[in-house]
Every structure is written in structure tokens, then in C-alpha cells.
Write a structure and sequence with these properties.
The protein is an alpha+beta fold. It contains 10 helices and 34 strands.
Length: about 575
């Protein structure tokens, strides 16, 4: 018995020792693999840094959904021979912009916008490679198909405004709905987004999302405030645009002015999708989880009155389409042509014919500037945000003239002096009919209250401080040119006071004499007037555009502004309001 026990004990000891050895080998192998992965990430990060740049961008004026100002972001070189840098659309903007790229050795080169996608959040900048004297240029390769759930990633860029930061994460979702950033701003749509907990913040926009092999699997675009969630744009559309630019070809972009959502099968059944169709789609792609359905139709677009929210897309030109990238391929390759699509509407299959519109045509490429205001055609982005028709005169910045008339930013000008202005060309024609010093009666509508039009007027001479001009983007480039729309420089009337007929002398009113008996109100009240005045632009440290102050009447020729000590002024009595 003792021998048996001893034998059992020895076997247990041997087994224990063997198990420890196997465990040690496993731990050693895991440790070696971890060291190997760590070394690979170290090498990959070092190689990637050479292609990543910090961007400083300045927007000189408001345009569309973008406001004037400065910002920091990230980009990375995708073609070092042509000098192409990939970043976000909300960095490149849609209107005039100036920028510069800063390499890791602090060399600075100017950048020029080459392409800004009308819908998706990517844009392309260019720089002159010959201006980079000391930094060794490198470029990153795009690999759209390398993204998988569970892929470990690094987001390398100017996170939080720093020169360079490296954020880690693991791809957790490849079919997230495109993030929505607000009602009156730029939003991406008609695409999936990737998601990971990378904790990226401001300044990291446009950063490359790389895997351990150094391949770019996505483009960092945004995040959710108060969380670690980061959102990344897939690269299918990006890769196509870069390829066409490298071939000196235009980047065609088609649209039905329709917003599609990817809807799961369970909800599609409630929309009337037949079980047979679901089985057919699942048989074609076992991993498919849903199909595309119409979410919004923009008024006035090619699908207006043809498609309806809730229509489930079955086929385009006889081909089954269930993904965003597939429908985009069909639209981009058929701009200006008619296509046949088949949809399921409330259980009934329907064949429809639609004409594919040009996305670049409905993206604004000009604006008017008058009285300090900036007015551009309503873009597809804003039309989609507010369910309005594309092309109406949109007030990107009210400026001095429209602000005096209390017309807020984001308004739609519907008439000038009771003449309708459905588009920018008509608005310019109407403005040219009136003298620059004339009063303007402006009728406008704000999208937040779209069923109510308001009428207001501008004071005489409010346009005199600014030249009327039209700005257009050059054909085939992102540079802007501006010129006055008048054949000759405007001759503004400075608004001299009208001559006043002499009147018989009248005895001075008793209230002008300080010796009047009574309360302070009785003595001072008759000498007070209210003066409203505005500055067309900041000057000499004074930045407030509007002031309303009380003035005390001192003489028959001037008054003294008493409310704000640093703006004491003497004004002719005839200018007092």
C-alpha cells in the first residue's frame, strides 16, 4: 500500500513537473510572440511617422457649413512623387482655405486643396515635393480589405493638438452607422463606419488607422464626446478617388439625392420584404445581415416623387445590391444616365427609372459677397439636413449688412424688394437693379421655422463699406478667384446730411437749462437720447459690432456718449436716432 502510494505520488510529481514544463513553454512562447509583436509595432510606427504630417488650416470666410477660423488636424502622404496628402473633408473644407503641412523634422510646406468629396469625409491636399529639403519623404499604402473585427490598430496623428501621438485600439464594429455631428453642420451618410475604443480627440482628424503591417485600413474621422469611441471612414471611395487623380482624370460622383440606411432583415420583414427574397439574399452572401432602404428623399432631386421612405432596394440594372459601396459604384459610373432599379414597397415589387445626378453640380462652387455678407447656393449637405431644395441663396455669414437687418446666419433669402430669388444668379440680378445706397427690403426664411417667411429692411448706405463681389472656384482646381460684379468701381454716397431750411428763431426750451427746478428725472430726462450705431468691422481694438447707448444733449451741435467710457463720441444732432 505504501509502495502504491509512493508510486502514485511519484507519477503525480512527474505529471506536475511535465505540466509545469508545458506551461513554462507556453508562457515563453506567448512572451516571445508578444515581444515579436511589440517589436513589429515599434518598427511599423517608426516607418509610419515619416509619412504623417501636422496640418495648420485657415478659413478666410464662412462658406456652406464651414465658419471662418483656424484649426489643427492631421494628414498623411499617399503619393510622395505627386505630393498628395490624405485627410478629412471637414479639414479641407468646401470653400476658400489656406494651409500648411509640418513634417516630423519641423519642415513646413504650403498645401493646396485638390479634392473634397461632396458626401464622404475625406479630402486630398497637394504640396510641392521639391520644397521638402531635408525630410526623407515616404508614403503609406491603402488597404481597404485588410480591416477585420479584432484587428489591433494604431491611430497616429496630432491628437489633442500635439505634434504627434499614438493611440491604440481594436476594431470592434465594421458596420456602424455614419456619425451625426449636428443639424446645421457637415454630416457623412450613405456609408458604413468602423469603430474602436481609441480615445482620439481634436487634432487627430485625418490620422491614418494602421495595422501591424503598416497598412492603412481606415481614415480617422471623429469620436463620441465623453467616451473612448473613435469612428473611422472605410477606404473604398478614397482609394478610387486617389487612383483617378493620379491618372489626371476627374472624380465622377453620382447621386439620386437619396439617403439610404442599412436595415436588418427583421425590420425589413415589417416593411414588406418577402421571405423568398430574404432567403435569396442570404444564399448569395451568408454573412449578410440586411439590405438598403430609403430613409430620406431630398426635394427637387431625381428621386423626388419616385422613391419613398421605406422602399427596399432589390436590384440596380438587374444586379442585386445590398451594400453602400456597390450602389456607389453604379451611381458614380452612370452620371447623367438613366438607370432601372427594382424596389419593394409595402410588399409590392416595382420597376422604376431614375436619372443619376452629378454630385459636383449640386455642390456649391461660388458665392456672393455684398455688405460683408457671404451667400452661397444651398448645398446638398444642407438641403439634406433640412429637407430643402438644392441651390437656394443660403446665408453662410450675415455680415454687417444683413446683421443690421436681423437676418441670422443659416437663413434662406427668398426675395429682395419683393422680387423672388430662387437661386444665386437671380439674387445677383436683383441686387444689380438697385443703387448701392438704396434701402433693401429682404424676405427670408430660416430652416428652423421653414413655413414662416419674415420681412425686414436694411438701413440706407449699409453696403458702402464693402465692395460687391462674386467668387468662383477655378475649373479643375480648388483655387478661388474673386472679382467685382460691377463694370466700374461703385461710387458710394457717403450720406451727407441733407440741407435744412432756416427757420425763425425760437426761444430755447426751459428744459435745456440746468437751473430747472424739480427731480433729477425732470431736469435730466429731456436731455437724454438713445443712439444705436454699428461698426462694419473691428478697428483700433474695438470689436463690438453693435452698441446702444444713452447720450446727454449738451449743445445744439453735438452730444456726449456717456454709457461706455472708451467710446466717447461727439455726433451731429441730425445723426441722432
Amino acid at each position: 500500500m505504501h509502495r502504491l502510494t509512493a508510486l502514485k505520488g511519484s507519477r503525480l510529481a512527474v505529471c506536475s513537473a511535465a505540466g509545469s514544463l508545458l506551461l513554462y513553454r507556453q508562457v515563453y512562447a506567448d512572451s516571445a510572440r508578444l515581444r515579436s509583436d511589440s517589436d513589429r509595432w515599434e518598427d511599423t510606427t517608426k516607418l509610419t511617422l515619416g509619412a504623417v504630417v501636422s496640418l495648420r488650416m485657415a478659413t478666410p470666410c464662412s462658406f456652406d457649413t464651414f465658419h471662418a477660423g483656424n484649426g489643427r488636424a492631421t494628414g498623411f502622404v499617399v503619393d510622395m512623387e505627386r505630393g498628395l496628402i490624405l485627410t478629412n473633408r471637414h479639414v479641407v473644407g468646401a470653400g476658400p482655405i489656406e494651409g500648411e503641412a509640418i513634417f516630423q523634422n519641423n519642415e513646413v510646406v504650403p498645401v493646396t486643396p485638390v479634392y473634397s468629396d461632396p458626401v464622404h469625409d475625406f479630402g486630398i491636399l497637394s504640396f510641392d515635393p521639391s520644397l521638402v529639403k531635408y525630410h526623407k519623404l515616404s508614403q503609406l499604402e491603402l488597404c481597404p480589405d485588410a480591416a477585420e473585427i479584432g484587428t489591433e490598430i494604431r491611430v497616429i496623428g496630432s491628437d489633442a493638438g500635439e505634434k504627434i501621438s499614438v493611440n491604440t485600439g481594436i476594431l470592434a464594429d465594421l458596420e456602424r452607422e455614419a456619425p451625426r455631428y449636428g443639424m446645421n453642420t457637415y454630416n457623412d451618410f450613405n456609408t458604413f463606419y468602423f469603430k474602436a475604443a481609441s480615445s482620439t480627440t481634436g487634432g487627430s482628424s485625418g490620422s491614418p488607422v494602421i495595422d501591424v503591417n503598416g497598412s492603412v485600413v481606415a481614415l480617422n474621422a471623429g469620436g463620441k464626446v465623453g467616451t473612448a469611441a473613435g469612428f473611422y471612414l472605410p477606404l473604398n471611395s478614397v482609394e478610387r478617388a486617389i487612383r483617378l487623380i493620379q491618372q489626371d482624370k476627374p472624380v465622377s460622383r453620382g447621386t439620386l439625392q437619396t439617403v439610404w440606411h442599412h436595415v436588418p432583415f427583421e425590420e425589413l420583414r415589417r416593411l414588406g420584404l418577402a421571405e423568398q427574397m430574404e432567403q435569396q439574399i442570404r444564399a448569395q452572401n451568408g454573412s449578410e445581415t440586411g439590405m438598403l432602404a430609403v430613409s430620406e428623399v431630398v426635394p427637387g432631386g431625381p428621386a423626388d416623387g419616385v422613391l419613398q421612405p421605406g422602399d427596399v432596394l432589390l436590384e440596380i440594372l438587374g444586379q442585386s445590391v445590398t451594400r453602400f459601396d456597390r450602389i456607389e459604384e453604379w451611381l458614380d459610373s452612370n452620371v447623367g444616365s438613366s438607370i432601372n432599379i427594382r424596389v419593394c414597397r409595402a410588399g409590392q415589387e416595382m420597376e422604376l427609372e431614375l436619372t443619376v445626378d452629378d454630385l459636383h453640380r449640386i455642390s456649391p462652387s461660388e458665392f456672393l459677397s455684398f455688405g460683408g455678407a457671404v451667400v452661397n447656393p444651398l448645398s446638398y449637405q444642407q438641403a439634406r439636413n433640412r429637407s430643402l431644395q438644392v441651390g437656394a441663396p443660403y446665408v453662410a455669414h450675415s455680415g454687417f449688412l444683413l446683421r443690421q437687418a436681423a437676418v441670422p446666419d443659416g437663413s434662406i433669402i427668398t426675395a429682395i424688394n419683393y422680387k423672388r430669388t430662387p437661386d444665386l444668379a437671380t439674387l445677383r440680378e436683383v441686387l444689380e437693379q438697385f443703387d448701392p445706397n438704396a434701402d433693401l427690403v429682404i424676405t427670408y426664411m430660416h430652416p428652423s421655422n421653414r413655413h414662416t417667411e419674415r420681412t425686414t429692411s436694411t438701413p440706407k448706405g449699409a453696403r458702402m463699406w464693402f465692395e460687391d463681389a462674386v467668387y468662383r472656384r477655378k475649373l479643375g482646381a480648388r483655387a478661388w478667384m474673386g472679382q467685382s460684379w460691377h463694370a466700374e468701381p461703385l461710387q458710394f454716397n457717403p450720406g451727407e446730411p441733407d440741407a435744412v431750411e432756416e427757420e425763425p428763431a425760437q426761444p430755447k426750451a426751459v428744459q435745456h437749462k440746468l437751473e430747472v427746478q424739480g427731480s433729477v428725472e425732470e431736469r435730466v430726462g429731456p436731455s437724454l437720447v438713445t443712439v444705436d450705431f454699428g461698426r462694419p468691422f473691428p478697428i483700433d481694438g474695438l470689436t463690438r459690432c453693435w452698441l446702444t447707448n444713452q447720450c446727454c444733449w449738451l449743445t445744439d451741435q453735438c452730444c456726449w456718449l456717456t454709457a461706455v467710457s472708451y467710446t466717447h463720441l461727439t455726433l451731429p444732432t441730425k445723426r441722432i436716432v
